[in-house]
Amino acid sequence: MHAIEITDLHKSYGPVEALRGVSFTAAEGRVVGLLGPNGAGKSTSVHILLGLARATSGTAAIGGRAYTDLDHPARTVGALLDQGGLHRGRSGRDHLRVLAAAARLPEAAVAVALEKVGMTRAADRRVGTYSLGMRQRIGLAAALLGEPRILVLDEPANGLDPAGMAWLRGMLRSFANGGGAVLLASHVLAEVAQVADDLVVIGEGRVLADGPLADVMAGDTLEHAYLDLTAASEGMF
Ligand SMILES: Nc1ncnc2c1ncn2[C@@H]1O[C@H](COP(=O)(O)OP(=O)(O)OP(=O)(O)O)[C@@H](O)[C@H]1O
């Protein structure tokens, strides 16, 4: 069993076929980069995986089960999707407290997660005063709250400064080295090339390439390999 197993997913939004038979896995101990042009189907795949959208057909399992069947989702998978859910008037600490309570996690998990993302000192300031990178760190703390073994992250480096990006790389590496699995969707190829073990490239709702980073790059730069793979895919927006 892989940490993440997506099998023959199809998803239609009316006449739009967002996914046309997407299959891939993310194994424990690996950081898996999920790449593809705008509209390729990355978010749709991730949303189905996290129970936020329903597949037309096919399956998406996380920790061996559909997300909606997990006994304790927050302890199984941590997700960072976008920062729309942060209440500007609330402190970072209070935001995490609310999430911890909703997920039936002990309040002590909040301080641990804040420390992990380097936000202990700023934790009691209102989110509205945070920089983009600080909000991103609170989002990462939220993903880590339940100490899950699987992380699903959409553009996690968004807004992070160079030191923050280096910190994130180190964090993801040690998370995977400790046996965790990471699915990392990003358009920042340099970031992905530095941290991913495996790649999944999607275009127009299909998997264009899937395998260890070095195999997908095939001796070229990731940018060249990616542009070659996606050249025929015009995007679907
Ligand atoms: N809720 C929705 N209703 C209708 N169409 C949708 C919906 N969500 C996604 N789509 C369509 O499905 C296709 C795949 O979109 P998706 O957001 O999965 O792409 P993506 O690879 O995540 O793109 P991006 O890199 O721009 O985030 C696109 O054609 C998009 O317009």
Automatic annotation (TrEMBL):
Its EC number is 3.6.3.-. Gene3D superfamilies: P-loop containing nucleotide triphosphate hydrolases. It comes from the Bacteria. One of its GO terms (molecular function) is ATP binding. Residues 4-229 form the ABC transporter domain. It is an enzyme of class 3 (hydrolase). Keywords: ATP-binding, Hydrolase, Nucleotide-binding, Transport. Belongs to the ABC transporter superfamily. This is Putative ABC transporter ATP-binding protein YxlF. It comes from Occultella aeris. The gene is yxlF_1.
